[in-house]
Amino acid sequence: MKFLYQCIIHFVQFILPVLKISGGKLKSFVEGRQGWADNLRHQVSDNDKVIWFHAASLGEYEQAVPIINSLKTSHPYYKIAVSFFSPSGYEVKKKDSKLDVVTYLPLDTKKNAKLFLDILKPKLALIIKYEVWPNMMDVLYERKINSYLISGLFRQEQLYFKPLGKFMAQALGKFDHIFVQNEESLKLLQQHGFNHSSISGDTRYDRVIAQLGMDNQLDFMESFTASGELTIVFGSTWPEDLSVCIDAINNLPKKIKVVIAPHQINSNQIQHIKKKLTKKTLCYTQLTSQDLNNYQVLILDTIGLLTKVYSYANVAYVGGGMGLSGLHNILEPAAFGIPVIIGKNYGKFPEAKMLRRLGGLFNIDSKEEFNSILEKMINDKTFREKSGQICGHFVNSEAGATPVILEKITKQL
Q: Is residue 210 part of a domain?
């Protein structure tokens, strides 16, 4: 299977330049990697001491942030390098002044892996959650570069634990240590002989708790919510999410304010949402000096504001769960002590399952179910506030992964 993997990777590398004509993310994926080596050389020198983080996309990067922030304080003489597999992570963070090096991860050929590490020369490699690339792990292991998997989450159906996935299991075995989120993951790894593992928890809890201590005030939200009794935020929504929510939004009383933050921002999608809405609606990019109190729905057609916007919410709907794209971060709104509603597909997200059992999160699979839970949230203040308190307490109780990880990895610096 390792040979087949190598063939597939080289075929993908050959065919990608042709596929980029389809545009969109695939075009960014291909064009962003063109000249990656030269781009990387311009960001590091031979004398730099580097700690390398790799994340698939922006969501996984958020799990690295608490560790990055701590290392920047405790080891300021190290450069922090972050690589991304997905354009959605790279494009957002490529100009982030807090990071010393931002790059795409090249496709996982042995040649690319060697060149990448020749240039970067990291002291440590910290891989977030799922991004295990066999050829890169081979080269890290050969060069005795200490590598760690952070906030790992494992399930029996994953390739590591299948007969055909032996080459992936071998790659996983080359980490110096694997930090996992929960006991289920640890037991599964140990059953398959991965004893270099331990429970740290999920660093996302530390990340969202840190947000509570920041300045979350937004002038436009102060104005928008000034006359409203309640604010409902629909965060990281996909069309499948809005299809079950839009009728309820249109039927809300005028006293309730609504913020919609689509996960994918493009003009066609924004226009489609606006056409479905019967409420007076304004987009963030259209904000001028008009009185926001005259509008009931605000569409966030921009990125980087949603976390702070959650601080103004009384109820949050988090998208991704009505389709197959994957549930988005429920911990961001939960940290602010507000109840969370999601779609039906959340089985791969332990934090959602735990919060549902506790009574802070509610899943729906139809318009009728959404209407029912939203009506209860609006009309029953005691129920709404109690559900929100459960969320806030839960997030606080799960914090603490960062110091556990730092205690082990900093011994190598």
A: no
Q: Which two tokens stand for residue 34?
A: 């063109």
Percent of the chain scored above 70 by pLDDT?
98
Same domain, 231 and 194: no
Cβ contact 258:252 at 8 Å: yes
Strand order in the sheet with 122-128: 101-104, 79-84, 50-55, 122-128, 146-152, 177-180, 197-199
pLDDT tens per residue, range 165-182: 899 999 999 999 999 999
Token pair listed for 211: 């947000």
pLDDT tens string 302-338: 988 999 999 999 999 999 999 988 999 999 999 999 9
Cα torsion at 194, 200, 202, 206 (round to 10°)?
Answer: -160
2: left (phi over 0), alpha (psi -120 to 50) or beta: alpha
The domain that holds 123 is classified in CATH as 3.40.50.11720
Which of 203, 112, 111 is CA-nearest to residue 103?
112
pLDDT at 20 (0 to 100): 62
Question: Is 4 a domain residue?
Answer: no
Mean pLDDT for the stretch of residues 42-52: 96
Query: Based on the domain organization, do 282 and 303 belong to the same domain?
Result: yes
Instruction: Please check whether residues 160 and 258 belong to one and the same domain.
Output: no
Alpha-carbon span 124 to 79, nearest angstrom: 11
- Please give the helix or strand (H or E) that residue 322 lies within, else none: none
> pLDDT tier at 19 (50, 70, 90 boundaries)?
low
Range(s) of the domain holding residue 40? 9-202+400-412
Q: How long, in residues, is the chain?
A: 413
Predicted TM-score (pTM) of the model is: 0.90
- Strand 79-84 relative to strand 50-55, pairing: parallel
Give the CA count within 13 Å in the CB-facing half-sphere of 133.
Answer: 25
Q: Is residue 3 part of a domain?
A: no
